[in-house]
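Contributing new complexes? Match this layout with P71.
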Amino acid sequence: MEKKRSWAEPYKIKMVEPVFMTTEEYRRKAIEESGYNTFLLRSEDVYIDLLTDSGTSAMSDRQWAGLMMGDEAYAGSRNFYHLEETVRECYSYKYVVPTHQGRGAEHILSRILIKQGDFIPGNMYFTTTKLHQELAGGKFVDIVVDEAHDPDNLYKFKGDTDLRKLEKLIGEVGADKIPYISIATTVNMAGGQPISLGNLKALRKLTTKHGIPIVHDMTRVAENAFMIQQNEEGYHDRSVAEIVYEICSLTDGSTMSSKKDAMVNIGGFLAVNDPVIFDKARNMVVIYEGLHTYGGLAGRDMEALAIGIRESLQDDHIRARVGQVMYLGEKMMNMGIPIVKPVGTHGVFLNARKFLPHITQDKFPAQTLAAEIYIDSGVRSMERGVVSAGRNKETGDHNYPNLELVRLTIPRRVYTQAHMDVIAESVQRVYERRDSIRGLKMVYEPEYLRFFQARFEKL
Ligand code: P71
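Output block (do not edit by hand):
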């Protein structure tokens, strides 16, 4: 039998950034002044920052060198052509429109494809994606498999679509009311869960029959491809790069937040195969982002992105990236802490319903838990529950999602295994004193994406 080999980082550390520990008393005051919202903390008051993996990863020496190769011409920067060539070769899409980040691409795509009264099915919602669909006059419809809404269900591809849900919707509203299907790799709100290629192929067949395009939210496609390589029959011998290419080839276009997989601090794009949609997107980007060869980015940003895309597809890289997240997840499971299973690819998601069963959802258990973890250790996490889900547009009441989660998101190439241990120990300490924790009330609520700026007080 082959001896099990541990994963390890395929790099060594060349530059470090100091982080500072504060006292518990200091943190109690800091989180109170931030309205018990981790988005409102100053980053200097954070010890280990697990708010997000978005724009927080460490660039490689190659990417930093790429910054020096920026061609900052207003039009036709060589870095744009490098990016375009990389997207074609790695992701298969023919036409690329750069944007400042993912939501910039979502905005343009939604405005072009969605008409008032349309329906956009997706494998679970994402906050910004859904908002742009709604602002364009559409309605999001969840067609993810039921398993995705159950944090304890061990199904390996909880990002799969339920084709019966889609067929039912097509039967009710007609294919002409569905401008496209939105498919995310991986599904963030489900806890970083992948979709299988088998399911995507079946979806492709069904949508082709009805003439409905598939738009791919490819924000974490490399992580999804890694899970396919590990767990889907027939893909064990395929490289992550090959699997990524195959996923993209099954879809008609994509929106991308390059701040995740591709390890840049800012950037994104819209990519399509249809020249007519490309033409419209290229025209619209000049209104909201910038000229179609920079779309809100500097030339150097596009260069770092082109390099980051290739790095994100290396098997060694992705094995270590996901390996670190799995290490933290398994450690917490061994401690008996309730988390979403299977462990996701970009973070460990605490199940706040089970962690704080005495706090009802209208008292924001996940928001409360994120604040308590910060108080314990200065580890910053993010609420992904009732606050993130917003309000029902018709009734005005909160949306109450089944998943009431706190996300401990791991930036790429930033923290060490010792950091993972400190994080797990902190969550364990909070778990031990869970009975003494009380909920929150919301005292300020912004109109859009309320989780970013909402304020709370202790009950
Ligand atoms: C994450 C983010 C950043 C974020 C966005 C909204 C609320 C809190 C944090 C951004 C994504 C994403 C997916 C699947 C589109 C975007 C938007 N994620 N799709 O997870 O995960 O991209 O932030 O570049 O505009 O912390 P953008």
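Reviewers usually confirm one structural detail per submission. For this one: The chain has a mean pLDDT of 97.
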